[in-house]
User: Fold this.
Amino acid sequence: MKAEHINPFIESTFSVFETMMGIKPSKKTVELKKGDNPSYDISGIIGLTGQAIGSVVISFPESLALKVVSKFIGEEKSEIDDDVVDAVGELINMIAGGAKKIFTDKGLKFKISIPNVVTGKGHKIKRPSNVPCIAVIFEVDKEFFAIEVSLKENN
Amino acid sequence: MKAEHINPFIESTFSVFETMMGIKPSKKTVELKKGDNPSYDISGIIGLTGQAIGSVVISFPESLALKVVSKFIGEEKSEIDDDVVDAVGELINMIAGGAKKIFTDKGLKFKISIPNVVTGKGHKIKRPSNVPCIAVIFEVDKEFFAIEVSLKENN
Assistant:
């Protein structure tokens, strides 16, 4: 994937977090993801197809997921239940949707599928070894979450 | 999703297993998946978009994944490594691709994204609560694997 393809996802993440939750995450690192880094405790995944094909993942430790989702839905959440799963799915949907709009303005069109949400401490989300992935780590209140993007232009 | 939408995925699963591995799984159950059923140890996920939108998942216990992948790649595998991750991604890609061909012949077109592969004992793969999912359990040599499909026609 091209490095410039990560920026619309970063921009969209900032926008969704600020607009929907009033949270301003700070961007800590942007790097090529190694296959064996574990994900956090709950991850939303959405597939992308069209002129560009791939996937985008948001992954939270449980405590940060609960904090973010509580602000997103306006209700205090203390455990990972269906509401939290739905909210994490909706968050990755909104982030992918925001990025899609930026890409469309640049002339690169794709469609987004329906999210899956993975739960379970220690789960890892991998791609085929020929599919590079860029991981962006964000910080909120001294906790971290990740946005992971794999995207290649269809030729 | 419509119940009839599961059949192309079942047909494609049989075809891929028999053609690529010489394995004839038997179909045990087809049912609406409840959100809290755990997945097995390694799962391939692929997103679908177009006239129909959704996702398809294959999930194996570790021992069966190793047995199936060993036949798929013609090399004995004793642990979940990058080769096994790649093979599980390729298997769900082929199953989705086979189903896509059957749907295209029926006049329903969609595109498939790039697979993600989730590893970790006890991980769960969920959908938003308004997205129904049909799970098909197959048996191979007294072990089980699952194909889970969420698909809705775009209106």
User: Anything to note?
Assistant: The interface with chain A takes residues 35, 45-50, 53-55, 57, 82, 85-86, 89-90, 111-120, 122-129, 131, 150, 152 of chain B (CB under 8 Å). The longest strand of chain B covers residues 143-153.
